[in-house]
Amino acid sequence: MMKVYDFEGFPNPARVRIALKEKGLFDSVEFVSINVPEGEHRKAAFREKNPSATVPVLELEDGTTIAECSAITEYLDQLTGEPQLTGKTPKERAVIAMMQRRAEAGLFDAVGTYFHHATPGLGAELETYQCAEWGRHQKTRAEATMRYLDGVLADQPYIAGKDFSVADITVYTGLGFADFAGVDIPDGCENLAHWRAKMDSRPSIAN
Length: 207
Fold this sequence. Notes:
Number of helices: 8
Shape: globular
Structural class: alpha+beta
Largest sheet: 4 strands, mixed
Strand order of the largest sheet: 2-1-3-4
CATH architecture of the largest domain: Up-down Bundle
Distance between the termini: 23 Å
CATH topology of the largest domain: Glutathione S-transferase Yfyf (Class Pi), Chain A, domain 2
Number of strands: 4
Number of domains: 2
CATH class of the largest domain: Mainly Alpha
Order of helices and strands: EHEHEEHHHHHH
């Protein structure tokens, strides 16, 4: 059985958990909790699985470990059929990859940088270096990305087009992370707000 090393409730683990539910694989993995708030992810035993000391990590039955949410989702997407989270045709795959990267860098990672640099983050013992100015700059970037995504959703039902994809998972969990970090969706982003409400009722998210 595959294993997923994560910490339930944290934003990056949530991305993989949603993907597992979308692909019907949630019950096919064993979840192993890594206590991130207590610094377990930085200990040698876990660093052997992921030198970057981040969760989640997917461990295959042969012992291969795969880190990074995009890589994990790409692997899971190839295991079963519908829905295809990373696209079917070359064009779909390219557009989804583009929007996934924009969402990850402009929203998810930007919120993360604000959280770790301009707020107490995970506490003084884990936040050993902070640059508040850089964190505040990334908050502005996250807000700008939300406005951009609102414009995208004015013309299509999902982040990368007509179908739900990994890009939607990244944006949805990124907005949840933003809530936790105190980064509000800017006023006037009605399309983004409506899309988020629609995502709330999706089985892989609601259950």
